[in-house]
Design brief:
This protein is of the alpha/beta class. The protein contains 2 helices and 7 strands. It has one domain: Rossmann fold, CATH 3.40.50.
Length: about 130
């Protein structure tokens, strides 16, 4: 997968968080860039369900303070290599159940890619290309 270099504003960027787990860190990403279109990926359907729950909680809190950013969706469809879960929550977040090494996305699909491995105390997220 090749990343596309960009100086575009956050609403025009697309971020992929690899092995996102429960999505707790993803809520921090959305706090900082609420209008950025993002994809949460993880192999575990249980972690993805928890990630969706955490993003919904983030959205409820944010709506109480202001409004949720751009909720546009790319309208991704199913893939033989992973199950795209779409932006059904209106938060600009898509969910992808797949192994990190099997993410099936065309070159240039993401402007920012970052794994977050908080369980081992290592967080190497938000790599701007």
């Amino acid at each position: 997968m090749i990343l596309s270099p960009s100086t575009a504003p956050p609403p025009q960027l697309r971020l992929l968080e690899v092995a996102a787990g429960t999505g707790r860190f993803h809520t921090f990403i959305k706090d900082t860039w609420p209008s950025m279109r993002t994809v949460v990926s993880d192999l575990s359907p249980f972690y993805l369900a928890k990630a969706r729950e955490n993003v919904r909680y983030w959205a409820r809190l944010r709506r109480n303070v202001s409004s949720v950013g751009d909720s546009s969706s790319s309208g991704s469809s199913g893939s033989a290599r992973g199950a795209w879960r779409g932006d059904v929550d209106g938060c600009g977040v898509e969910y992808l159940q797949t192994a990190a090494e099997k993410i099936d996305a065309p070159d240039g699909s993401f402007d920012v890619v970052g794994p977050c491995m908080s369980s081992v105390g290592l967080c190497t997220c938000i790599v701007r290309c």
